[in-house]
Specification:
- This protein has about 300 residues and is of the alpha/beta class.
- The protein has two domains: about 1-165, 3-Layer(aba) Sandwich (Rossmann fold), CATH 3.40.50; about 170-300, N-(1-d-carboxylethyl)-l-norvaline Dehydrogenase, domain 2.
- Helices cover about 50% and strands about 15% of the residues.
- Strands 3-2-1-4-5-6 form a six-stranded parallel β-sheet, with helices on both faces. A three-stranded mixed β-sheet has the order 7-8-9.
- Helix 1 (about 10-20) packs parallel to helix 7 (about 125-130), helix 9 packs across helix 12 and helix 9 (about 165-195) packs parallel to helix 14.
- The N and C termini lie far apart (about 50 Å).
- It binds nicotinamide-adenine-dinucleotide (NAD).
- Nicotinamide-adenine-dinucleotide (NAD) binds near residues 7, 31, 65, 121 and 124.
Length: about 300
């Protein structure tokens, strides 16, 4: 298949590489030339602009930071929608609000092209391994048409049609607000346990084997416990997802007291200048206030 891809970041670069590995004829674009160059070395074609990605493609993908970039790249005369061929299928893999997905889809419909939202979960590791879960919003015939191509990016058993356009984005926000809030709660719980005298690595091992286990806790093994906040998933993007979830809740008139507090905590961590570090870095705020460090390394490695 001829596939176009815009946004070769931490997730997109791996997804694009997996599309190439599956034998697709791939054209790529990113504002960072070095990201494009890395894919060209693997066999992709570089487009000099967004419109070059749309040109002739049967599937066009984006993996971009958030709503502003997504609307900017898809919409308008210089955008992907205006320059795609009419039989092509447009698929956004970014995490955005359902309102953004629906507004891009409305323009797609006006221009006679088809659009789906398909945000992903599974982190950079899942993107690299091609085992992401995908949460798709669209119509069934488009989903079925895209499924073989999506299978290069995600685990075929974890590619879900969630409903009409926007439903993928809603599902992704439900998933991520759980993860963002869990990071804040884990920081509280572990700071208490460590200050009360139990080693962080013991807490981790026991909770991981008990009812407090979660996918978010599993990520702490290589982040908070190792004092390594290299992203992964940047705090700035996690804050964006909490904000988008709260915007949706406000539209629906739903109280979200816990998510609101978690969002404020992420905002405070952002204000510390930690936006480009991994989301679990939010634990540092709690550590500072509690006067403990949640350090799970062997005592000889602690500095
Ligand atoms: P990233 O910041 O690493 O990558 C974004 C890429 O988009 C960058 O390469 C950037 O140069 C490019 N870009 C930005 N504006 C552009 C423009 N106008 N034109 C062309 N390229 C542009 O982000 P990421 O971590 O890869 O995340 C991408 C999306 O996937 C986000 O919506 C994020 O919320 C979501 N997501 C990320 C993870 C994760 O673990 N990192 C997991 C699930 C979902």
């Amino acid at each position: 298949m001829r596939v176009g891809f815009v946004g070769l970041g931490r997730m997109g670069a791996h997804m694009a590489r997996n599309l190439l590995a599956a034998g697709h004829d791939l054209t790529v674009y990113d504002v960072r030339p070095e990201a494009v160059e890395a894919l060209v070395e693997l066999g992709a074609t570089a487009a000099s602009s967004v419109t070059g990605v749309a040109d002739g493609a049967e599937f066009v993908f984006t993996s971009l930071p958030g709503p502003d970039e997504v609307t900017g790249i898809w919409q308008g005369e210089e955008g992907l929608l205006a320059n795609m061929r009419s039989s092509a299928l447009a698929i956004d893999l970014s995490t955005v609000g359902a309102d953004t997905s629906r507004s891009v889809e409305a323009e797609a419909r006006n221009r006679g092209v088809r659009y789906m939202d398909a945000p992903v979960s599974g982190g950079v590791g899942g993107a690299e391994a091609g085992t992401l879960s995908l949460m798709v919003g669209g119509i069934e015939s488009d989903f079925e048409e895209a499924f073989p191509v999506l299978s290069a990016i995600g685990d075929p058993d974890k590619i879900y049609l969630c409903g009409e356009v926007g439903a993928g984005s809603v599902t992704k926000l439900v998933n991520n607000l759980i993860g963002m809030t869990a990071n804040v709660v884990l920081a509280e719980a572990f700071s208490m346990g460590v200050k009360a005298g139990v080693d962080a690595s013991v807490l981790f091992e026991v909770v991981s084997a008990s009812s407090g286990a979660s996918a978010t806790l599993a990520q702490w093994k290589t982040s908070v416990l190792q004092r390594n906040f290299e992203p992964g998933f940047m705090l700035a993007l996690g804050h964006k997802d909490s904000r988008l979830a709260l915007e949706l809740a406000e539209q629906l008139d739903i109280p979200m007291p816990v998510t609101t507090q978690a969002r404020d905590r992420l905002a405070a961590a952002l204000a510390e200048g930690w936006g480009e570090e991994a989301v679990p870095v939010v634990a540092r705020l709690q550590e500072r206030e509690a006067g403990v460090v949640i350090d799970g390394r062997e005592s000889a490695d602690r500095s």
